[in-house]
Amino acid sequence: METTPTRILIHGASGRMGQALLRLAAEQPQPLQVVAAVMRKSPAQRVVEGVPYFAASELGGVPAFDVAIDFSLPEGFDPVLALCVQRGAALVSGTTGLGAAQQDALAQAATRIPLAWASNFSLGVAVLTELVERAAAALGGWDCDVVESHHVHKKDAPSGTALTLGEAAGSAGAPVHYASLRAGDIVGEHLVQFTGLGERIELVHRATNRDIFARGALHVAHRLAGRAPGQYRVRDLLD
């Protein structure tokens, strides 16, 4: 029996993540169909490999879609969120730097549509976050350190993912300390270390290819489409 594909809108199609999403969508095990790609400026070509392209100013004219995947800029976030609410479509967003008003708008939108915002869409990191939370709850009184390593061009420290891991440990009562390393072309490594008297537990995730983030976002989009309104985490959508 044929399965109807999930119709995907890619918002921020000219960026590195947008390009990866377009390249990888057809390779996913889930049935996906990219019905529109939206970029900030007017596209040089209107149709590329069967996918229609739109400028951000033309967002209201995109065809019907089930879920929008947004990796854009804070100034481009509000229109795509409003469009998803207007059309009753789901939203997956990895756009960082959102202001307090935009975070409030996300919470309001979640009462009407299903949405997932994350600083990291790696499925492995989602599992790591859950393991960190469980370890922190079980190891009361142990020291907790989050050590993250990235390439030399990454400016923020600690990374957004390190802060998310720290929040998971902190929610279970662990006092968290951070350390950051910037070296070479490291894609991303996160070590969460719990240390007690005479013993230590280390939980580690190493990213060796940035495509994992696009694959994770596509996985989440497929599982988010058609769900009840609410704010979902990546770990809520693993299976």
Brief account:
By secondary structure, this protein is α/β, with parallel strands linked by helices. The protein has six helices and twelve strands. An eight-stranded mixed sheet has the order 3-4-2-1-5-6-7-12, sandwiched between helices. The chain has a four-stranded mixed sheet with strand order 9-8-10-11, covered by helices on one side.
What does this structure look like?
The structure is a single chain. The strands form two sheets. Strands 3-4-2-1-5-6-7-12 form an eight-stranded mixed beta sheet, sandwiched between helices. It has helices spanning 16-24, 74-87, 100-109, 123-138, 160-171, 211-224, and strands at residues 6-11, 32-39, 47-48, 51-55, 67-70, 90-93, 114-117, 143-150, 176-182, 188-196, 199-207, 230-231. It is globular, with a radius of gyration of 19 Å. 38% of the residues are buried. Helix 3 (100-109) links the parallel strand 6 (90-93) and strand 7. It is an alpha/beta fold and 239 residues long. The mean pLDDT is 94.
Helical segment count: 6
What radius of gyration results from the CA coordinates? Answer: 19 Å
**Gap between N and C termini, in Å?**
21 Å
Strand arrangement, major sheet: 3-4-2-1-5-6-7-12
Helical content class:
25-40%
Structural class: alpha/beta
Q: What's the story with the biggest beta sheet? A: 8 strands, mixed
Shape: globular
Number of DSSP-assigned strands:
12
Q: SSE order, as H and E?
A: EHEEEEHEHEHEHEEEHE
What ranges have pLDDT less than 50 throughout 5 or more consecutive residues? none
